[in-house]
Design brief:
Structural class: alpha+beta
CATH topology: Arc Repressor Mutant, subunit A
CATH architecture: Orthogonal Bundle
Number of strands: 3
Distance between the termini: 32 Å
Largest sheet: 3 strands, antiparallel
Low-confidence stretches: 1-5
Number of domains: 1
Strand content: 5-15%
CATH class: Mainly Alpha
Order of helices and strands: HHEHHEEH
Radius of gyration: 16 Å
Mean pLDDT: 90
Helix content: 40-55%
């Protein structure tokens, strides 16, 4: 192997892992959810902030956040009356920036 060739350090994914990864990317296939993820790339946000910046109904944002949470894209934490969301996998921000050509 040449010094510049990269050695694969990951085994082939199991069918369950492949299905989870597909669900992860499927969740990003909706423009509203992708905009939410873009907002979270700047850091943790309260649901109220995500709602205010989206121009969508609170229930719409909550539903989309539920999809993102169940697919493993975002994680949340309740603090008092507010729920705060963040990217569950911060490396997702790098992937999105790469695909945007940044």
């Amino acid at each position: 192997m040449s010094p510049t060739a990269k050695k694969s350090c990951r085994r082939q994914a199991s069918p369950k892992e492949t299905a989870e990864l597909a669900a992860f990317f499927k969740a990003l296939g909706n423009p509203v959810r992708l905009r939410i993820v873009e907002q979270l790339m700047a850091g943790e946000r309260c649901v109220c902030e995500l709602h205010a910046k989206s121009g969508k109904d609170q229930s719409t944002i909550s539903n989309h956040l539920g999809v993102l949470r169940h697919s493993g894209v975002v994680a949340c934490e309740q603090r008092g009356k507010n729920v705060y969301y963040r990217l569950a996998r911060p490396c997702l921000a790098d992937i999105i920036r790469c695909l945007q050509g940044c």
